[in-house]
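tool=predict chain=A
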Amino acid sequence: MTKVDHIEEQSEWQHHSEVWRFYQSGQFVDLRAISEDWRDVSELWPPDKGWRRGGRLGIGDAVFSLYEVFEFAARFANAVEGDDAIIIKANIGGLKDRALYIDDPRRLPLRDQPKGHLDKFPQKYELSRTEVVEDPKRRAVLAAQELFRRFGREFPDHVLRDWLERMLNQR
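tool=predict ok
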């Protein structure tokens, strides 16, 4: 007899590929591909000249993906009783030699496209429920800053926050 201790979903659509699993223990695991890497199968966002899988990481996509992690954690913290700390792990792989670029056509491109110095970006946050709920946008911006430092870049917090706000208003 198989014991079912989780629910899960897998989806592949256009340039989005993701699988998540939510366990009875409260653990949530989400594995997703970097959207840029799946443009060759997308009709909505086909590859441009010079595209290659694993070649680039969009700044906006990275900030928004990190925001989704912290926003989900905030909603989860509000939905479940208790005062245990919440552990959030964000691991982004395949960064070595990947170029960081501006993925918003309304913004000026970077003069250069800095390359990732490390292959992985493992981050772990152990936060109280109050801290998790406090400001997911701020946490996403801070996490994105840490990620972009792996490319030798830093952007003003208010620029990334504004970028995130604009993306949220478009959805």
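Strands lie at 6-13, 16-23, 28-32, 56-58, 86-92, 99-101, 121-127. The helical segments are 59-79, 129-134, 136-149, 157-170.
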